[in-house]
Amino acid sequence: MNQIITRPVIGIVSPCYNEQEVLPETAAQLNALLTGLIQDNIISEKSFVVFVDDGSRDATWQITENLAQQYPLIKGLKLAGNVGHQNALLAGLLTFNSEADALVSIDADLQDDINAIPEMIEKFVHGADVVYGVRRERTTDTAFKRNTALMFYKFAKKMKVNLVHNHADFRLCSKRVISALSGYAEVNLFLRGIIPSIGYRREMVYYDRLERFAGTSKYPLKKMLSFAWNGITSFSNYPLKLVSVIGFVIFAVCLGMSAYALLSLFSGHTVPGWVSTVLPMYFLGGIQLFCFGIIGEYIGKIYAEVKQRPRYIIDKKAE
């Protein structure tokens, strides 16, 4: 059981990519939140906020450096290049794990309600190692985004991927959870699937997602689909099993078609024309390409893993 910690050191890790419009407001709100918790003797005065600059092309890092000078609780971590949201988040978690009892991950766009963080801390203090921020509902989403998200969770469940429904990357993790996370060396990161697989005691905090304060989303439809597919293929070999199922079904259909063709031949009712020849070829060819694509996806992941390249490179810090 996790030991109860009084006045824990809490770190808030926020990955940023081209967030110059929203960063000053995010820093002000998170600084005010931690300052209030420190004054109420809920958390330690050593608590902090760290913004991880994921190779931004705008003024995100310059603003982060200025914020670190303006607010004593704010730090910055600049990565040498753009490595993606999941790797940037991991860089912040692993780099600052030794400085905190627990780390809260939250995006910089202020859509996740920071007022849920005190409840997360309370649950951590009372023994939870992981506290997931879970959306109550998706009324702020468009109908398209709401329905596609629902489809994703249903599909992921069928693919045997262990996910927390309506949870993104807004969570609190204890020091020992992140220490365990450091042992996961895969390049194809999907933290929403990795952290639930670690185990330890978990709790939920429910909140309403807010509108983006400023700037534009860094996750258009193409990126969201790629992220979802990466998550499924990183945590389930079920699509490969699906290939076998498809192959068996096609084999059974072909047996039936062969039996029908032989029966027609012996009864003298053969049907002339190219349709009966070409359509099965197109059908089988499409299925084969689909299966080769799934197999190729897994081979590509194996290729990325065996190279064992670093997932991120730290350029500098601001404190």
Instruction: Compute the CA-based radius of gyration.
Output: 25 Å
Basic shape: elongated
Helix content: 40-55%
Computed structural class: alpha/beta
Helix and strand succession? EHEHEHEHEHEHHEHHHE
Report the mean per-residue pLDDT as an integer: 79
Query: Which stretches are low in confidence, meaning pLDDT under 50 for 5 or more residues running?
Result: none
Strand content: 15-25%
State the total count of DSSP E strands: 8
Oligomeric status: single chain
**Total count of helical runs of at least 4 residues:** 10
Write the layout of secondary structure elements.
Elements: E1 10-16, H1 23-39, E2 48-53, H2 60-70, E3 74-79, H3 85-96, E4 102-105, H4 117-125, E5 130-135, H5 143-158, E6 167-174, H6 175-181, H7 191-198, E7 202-207, H8 221-235, H9 238-267, H10 275-307, E8 314-318
Parallel strand pairs: 1-2, 1-4, 2-3, 5-7
Antiparallel strand pairs: 3-8, 4-6, 5-6
Helix pairs in contact: 9-10
Explain this structure:
The chain has helices spanning 23-39, 60-70, 85-96, 117-125, 143-158, 175-181, 191-198, 221-235, 238-267, 275-307; strands at residues 10-16, 48-53, 74-79, 102-105, 130-135, 167-174, 202-207, 314-318. The chain is α/β, with parallel strands linked by helices. The protein has an 8-stranded mixed sheet with strand order 7-5-6-4-1-2-3-8, with helices on both faces. α9 (238-267) packs antiparallel against α10 (275-307). The longest helix is centred in the C-terminal third of the chain and has 33 residues, at 275-307. It is elongated and about 90 Å long.
